[in-house]
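Predict structure. Chain length: 482.
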Amino acid sequence: MANASRVHFADITPAIALGALDGRYRGAVAPLVDHLSEAALNRERIHVEVEWLIALTDGTPAGPIVPGAATLSDADKAYLRDIVATFGAPEIAELAEIERQTVHDVKAVEYFIKRRIADAPQKVGADSALPAVSELVHFACTSEDINNLSYALMVKGAVEGVWLPAAHTLVEQITQMARELKAVPMLSRTHGQPATPTTLGKELAVLAHRLKRQLTRIERDEYLGKLNGATGTFGAHSAALPGADWPQVSKGFVEHLGLTWNPLTTQIESHDWQAELYSDIARFNRILHNLSTDVWTYISLGFFKQIPVPGATGSSTMPHKVNPIRFENAEANLEISCALFDVLGSTLVTSRMQRDLTDSSSQRNIGSAFGHSLLAIDNVAKGLDRLAVDEDVLRGDLDANWEVLGEPIQSVMRAASVAGVPGMENPYERLKDLTRGHRIGGEELVEFVRGLGLPEQDTERLAAMTPATYVGLSELLVDKYL
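Prediction complete.
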């Protein structure tokens, strides 16, 4: 009863967003709206329908596709393409009104275009050929002919125009950090335990290299499309116009849109390319998740200090805290994105016999999958931008773990044993007795080295070594391979 008098948020205008991507985080994901929203889907449907009408009336080098079809002038074609270019708020509302009557989204697009064609004589001129070819709108097409091409164009645009540029910018940011920090020594943690030192830059370089490989894969992914009718047989096409080379017409049209032609399908394009792409992006996400958890851990160890945002509150009760929220938010968004991409990849490749509609509902969530990934990229970029290295903490961590030099000492002993130096037997066991389960200092380790009987050159090299200098080829690896 107490809740009965509350304001119903669903009744408020403008509408309040149900999801975080269209509410709290709208600014970070807004560029995707132009590609993966419902309005973007309808604009691409109009684009495909318009280009199909133009293709049918243009014909092929071998001759006309539709005998007797009027030839469209350049003004007619410009008018058609302007329907796509000017598709905005009034047109979105008009199309929605038509769909309320048709209760069919693609049919509504057909009627929307035909309305514009009916107006062509007033807009283009009395000699416009468009009214004469009005019935070629959606000619021989099933809805999926239009939808599969529209989704391919939407996803291609989102990946190439929004997601990839953001991902490349982030990876370049990580790469630059790796180069700047390539010489900063850091104690490693394998299994969470002190291990062979590395450099902070080399560890970031590993992650940058992994992410770059995934971007290369994503850039090579194909975007497939089909236009072959209700069950992929060109049945309606060949029944209406048996003289046309429909597979060649279809191939030329799909490639004209910038897509790869799929010659063998059922009513739907099989969506395998989507599963492949989403798997690659999910893998990028998971590597970025690995970076987020590692950087979070380095922050907790004190290797990184976070630069406070002026005026920001880190904790509601503990004023000293600066929480690593950017990386925690990134983890959550990456997990949500991967979950969505995994579901899309596993469901879209399956359709009962020649067609079911499970893909229709699934594909409406593509924008959310990309949105959470793009938001995570933004989270990580902003988080990295507020980090500063605390070299004193790194140095202290190294100085407290001289036992990690047991590895190079035993390796030198093994090499000396092979070279015939006496007294080098059981190097691993001797270092284990010295170092396992307790801490040793530099003086103790140097004393041990000088008592081994190694050649003087090896003895002096090991005696001069510290945890901070035992970083192998870390700098070279960053310089040469990143």
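Summary: Residues 118 and 269 are 32 Å apart (CA to CA).
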